[in-house]
Amino acid sequence: MRRMTVLAAAAALAIAGGSTGVALVAHAAPPPPPPGPAGGPPAHGPHGGPGWAHWMHHGHWRHHKPLITPGTFALLFHPADREITTADAQEIATGFLRWNGNHTWKVVDVKQMSDGKIGFSYATADNSVIASFTIDSRTGRIRRVG
User: Fold this and answer.
1) Which strands make up the sheet holding 129-136, listed edge to edge?
2) Domain extents for the chain?
3) Which of 41, 50, 59, 67 could be disulfide-bonded to 54 (CB atoms 3.0-4.6 Å)?
4) In sequence order, which ranges of 1-146 are alpha helices (DSSP H)?
5) What is the mean pLDDT of residues 86-105?
């Protein structure tokens, strides 16, 4: 008797789950318009080459996986003002070099600028400057300036 009750409950759950799935599919968003001049985006990218659909369809996206998967550092809070100091900027710039496996370049010319940005440069072991950057002390955005 007990076995029949369990089987009846399992069947009821299967039917309820199936009908819920059908309801979700019935209320799904309509498909996007077809590619081309009829209304959708062009089938090819802006330069005439294959667009994102080509990359997704042929699996090329698998070769471009991010270094850090989304959600890995989800517990970290990003304040509106990060209050980055010149010492922080030097550590961030050095950390970037190390993260990318570069142990020969170094960070030089770290200085506070008048507009709330901090300037720094990357140099070789003989102090030949390779590139110069600024980091916004409030947002942390890095821009190349030279």
Assistant:
1) 106-112, 117-123, 129-136, 142-144
2) 2-63, 86-144
3) 50
4) 2-26, 52-57, 86-99
5) 95
